[in-house]
Structure formats: structure tokens, C-alpha cells
Amino acid sequence: MKSVSILGATGSIGQNTIDLIARSPDAYRVVALTGGRNVEKLADDARRLKAAIAVTAEPALYAELAERLEGSGVEVAAGPQALVEAASRPADWTMSAIIGSAGLEPGLAAIGNGATLALANKESLVCAGPLLLSEAKQAGARILPVDSEHSAIFQALVGEDMAAVERITITASGGAFRDWPEERLAEATAAEAATHPNWSMGQRITIDSASLFNKAMELIETHEFFGVPSSAIDAVIHPESIVHAMVAFRDGAVLAHLGFPDMRHAIGYALNWPDRLALPVPRLDLVKLASLTFRDADERRHPALRLAREVMDAGGLSGAAFNGAKERALDLFIEGRITFPTMAAIVERVLDRLSASGDLAGAMTIEAVRDIDERSRRLADEAAAER
Ligand SMILES: NC(=O)C1=CN([C@@H]2O[C@H](COP(=O)(O)OP(=O)(O)OC[C@H]3O[C@@H](n4cnc5c(N)ncnc54)[C@H](OP(=O)(O)O)[C@@H]3O)[C@@H](O)[C@H]2O)C=CC1
Ligand SMILES: CC(=O)[C@@H](O)[C@H](O)COP(=O)(O)O
Ligand SMILES: [Mn+2]
After folding, report:
1. Pocket mutation for ligand 2, best pick of 122, 169, 201, 237 (most atoms within 8 Å of C-beta)
2. ipTM exceeding 0.90?
3. Is the CB of 302 under 6 A from ligand 2?
4. Over the stretch 185-227, which tens digit does the pLDDT of each residue have?
5. What percent of the chain has pLDDT over 90?
6. Which ligand 2 atom lies nearest to the CA of residue 212?
7. Contact at 8 Å (CB) between 283 and 331?
8. Which end of the chain is more exposed for a tag (fewer CB within 10 A), N or C?
9. What is the per-residue burial (b if ≥16 Cβ within 10 Å, else e) of 229-250?
10. Any residues with CB less than 8 A from the CB of 232 and at least 6 apart, and which?
11. Cα torsion through 44, 8, 108, 66, rounded to 10
12. Is 209 annotated as a binding residue?
């Protein structure tokens, strides 16, 4: 029986993970389930899956969670520290699916177990890739990518020599606005941006898909996780989201990973790894699909991609600044305080300010990452106020 913890259990990835686990109740023992504001869902799943502990990140929701779980035998806790403590409890497999940089420290705590971390939380790699990977090495932990493109790359690389890799290409759906004229983007609302053409995901990553900040983060994630230079990584727009990534080798061969856009593919692969077991996902019918199309991902129309390249080349703490500023700019857009294109302008301004000060060249410690994360959010507010 495999022991599992799910960080971010109430979200889109968390619920897809629970869907897979709940289909084989005898195969899994659930250690920790964590959530944020949705304590109703957290309590229901903790009770149903007989979790050892349920934790909400919100201290103010402790009493409600405790009341909902009364008599269940599930231990209850609340707050960011309790969440880190629960993540550090021994489990064979932990899903890291908290949204944003809030997922970094719980992920690091899980790595401390020396077991397997299934990593959906791409922000961890963007903010602190070298730190995460070195902690995993030290603890003897394994990180398995869950982001669909990175799972695809990982699968294409099985048995391959990294020295033979010439190029890695990830695909982007183009998001909600891929067919909008550029001039209209300033009128885009958060509700419009939060409608994905192919994938069903949380609100924040869906808006990041529309701005291509999701793809920008994934370029950085590819660079950090697979150790490939930015010059050998790119993104192409692929409106069908059937091909997830392609790895080109020095002999001219290209291995592509295809699958219906359903995250249970990538989650299931990480859950069953190194085995490849049956999954309850729709099957591809290429004849019915008839064609797969690709277009250039224009870095002028999508400044997030250009900024990602700057971050990959600068290294150090620039990923933490990029992510912190992006997360804050996204809050401001969702609140209706800035326009859609202003998000990228704010991230660029914050990166310029912090790199000019030399502060992004410091050593990567968790304290330094936290400090840059906080400062970049404050600077994003200042940049928004100046506009
Ligand atoms: N959704 C997808 O298909 C994909 C997602 N990813 C990545 O996976 C991660 C999760 O995405 P997704 O599932 O869409 O996100 P959701 O918004 O659907 O879920 C986020 C989860 O994190 C919890 N949460 C929110 N804020 C905090 C916090 N401050 N501290 C602790 N927990 C918190 C939420 O709790 P609550 O809802 O209870 O408030 C919820 O459980 C992200 O990093 C995303 O980039 C990667 C590839 C695909
Ligand atoms: C499912 C997944 O991995 C998402 O990160 C996906 O990539 C989002 O789609 P976009 O290609 O629109 O960013
Ligand atoms: Mn992805």
C-alpha cells in the first residue's frame, strides 16, 4: 500500500489526483490533505479517504474544519506552519499542487522525507529551482514533473542520453485570446481570460495561459528541471493541445508526446511511475482530429516569453522576482485595477529595478527567495500606482 499526501487537495490538480486515488482505495493510505479556503471540500475528502490529517492554510477556518471533521478521527490543523509540518510527515508520494509560491516551503518539507514529490507547482522551480533540486539530491528524494509539458518531456527522455538532446519545444494553446487582435487586449476582463479553450484548470493558471505567463514559467521550468540552456528551448502555439512537448535529438529524430488534454495523464504517470498503468482518460482518434496545427509564438505579442528568456539567462534570484511580480500583477488584474497588457509591463519594470540594484545576484537560500518574493510584490504595487 502506497502512502500519499496531497498539498492543494481542493484545487483542480488536487481533485484530479483524488479522482485517481479514490478509484483504488485499497492501494493507497492517505496521510495529509491540505487546502485553503474550501474547507467543505477538504473535510468531505478527508473523511471519505480516511486521511490522517487535514490542514487548511487559513488559521481563521480552523474551527469550521474541526467542526466538519468532528468524530471522523481525522486530525485537524490550520495555518502555513501546520501545513509545512503536515507536508513533512512521512509519505511515499506527495502531490505538490498548491498554487503560487506558497507551494514552495511545503514542497521543500515533503522533499525532506526523501521520498517522491510529484511536482505540479511550477512556481517552486521558477522561484527556486536550484534550491529545490539540491535539497532533493541531499535528501535522496525524487521529483517527478506533473506539468503536462514536462511530464511529456520526461517521458520522451526515458532511456535517452541528455548529451544527444538538441532542442526541447513545449506547446502553448494560446489561451483565451489567441485569436483576438492585439489592440483589443487592453479591454480583456478577468472573466474572459479565465476561460481556457482546452483545459479545465484553476482560475489563476487559466489567466496565465491567456497572457502566456504560464508558458513563460514553463520555459523556465524546462530550463531548471532538465538543465537545458535557454537557447535550446522554445514554445510554439498549438491550438489543439494534443501534442504537449517535443524533444529533438542530434540525429534529427523528434519524439513528441500526444494525449487528450486531461491532467489525469500526467498525474497518473507520476503516481504509477515507473510503471505505466491503465488510466481513465479519453483516447485519441487522430483520424477524427484530422489535423494538428502549429504557429509561431511571437515574443513581441507575448512579452512574457521574452521576459522568461531574460530570467533563464540571468539566473540567480531573477525567477523569484519574475514570479512574485507576476503573482501580484495577476491579483491586480483579477481585482480590475490594471489592464491585461499591464501585467507584463509591471513584471518587466520590477525585474529591471531589482536587477539594477544587484539584488538578484545573491546566493539562493530560502530566506533570500522569500525576501525577493515579498519585495517584488511591493514593487509591483508601486509600478501599478505609477501608471
Ligand atoms: N490545473 C492544472 O491543470 C494544472 C496546474 N498546474 C499547477 O498546479 C498548481 C495548482 O494549480 P490548480 O490546481 O489549477 O490551482 P487551483 O487554484 O485549482 O488550486 C490551488 C490549491 O491551492 C490551495 N491554496 C491556495 N492558496 C493557498 C495558500 N496560500 N496556501 C496553501 N494552499 C493554498 C487551494 O485551496 P482552496 O481552493 O481550498 O482555497 C487549492 O487547494 C499550480 O502551481 C499550477 O501552475 C500545472 C499544470 C496543470
Ligand atoms: C495542463 C497544463 O499543463 C497547463 O499548464 C497547460 O499547459 C495550460 O495550457 P496553455 O498551453 O494554454 O498554457
Ligand atoms: Mn503546462
Report:
1. 201
2. yes
3. no
4. 999 999 999 999 999 999 999 999 999 999 999 999 999 999 9
5. 99
6. 13
7. no
8. N
9. ebeebbbbbbbbbbbbbbbbbe
10. 165, 166, 167, 168
11. -40
12. yes
* The one-letter amino acid at 302: H
DSSP per residue over 298-341, as a string? -TTT-HHHHHHHHHHHH-TTHHHHHHHHHHHHHHHHHTTSS-TT
2-145 maps to CATH 3.40.50.720: yes
- 26-49 pLDDT tens trace: 999 999 999 999 999 999 999 999
Residue 202, marked binder:
yes
Cβ proximity of 237 and 230 under 8 Å: no
Q: Residue 266: CB within 6 Å of ligand 2?
A: no
Helix or strand or coil: residue 157? coil
In angstroms, the CA 91 to CA 307 distance is 37
Do residues 172 and 301 make contact, with C-beta atoms less than 8 angstroms apart?
no
**What nine digits make up the cell of 334?**
483579477
- Distance of alpha carbon 154 from alpha carbon 138, whole angstroms: 21
Kindly give the distance from the C-alpha atom of residue 304 to the centroid of ligand 1, in angstroms, as a whole number. 21
Whether pTM exceeds 0.90: yes
In this structure, which residues have their CB less than 5 angstroms from ion ligand 3?
Answer: 147-149
The residue to mutate among 5, 6, 13, having the most atoms of ligand 1 within 8 angstroms of its beta carbon, is 13
Q: What is the mean pLDDT of residues 320-324?
A: 98
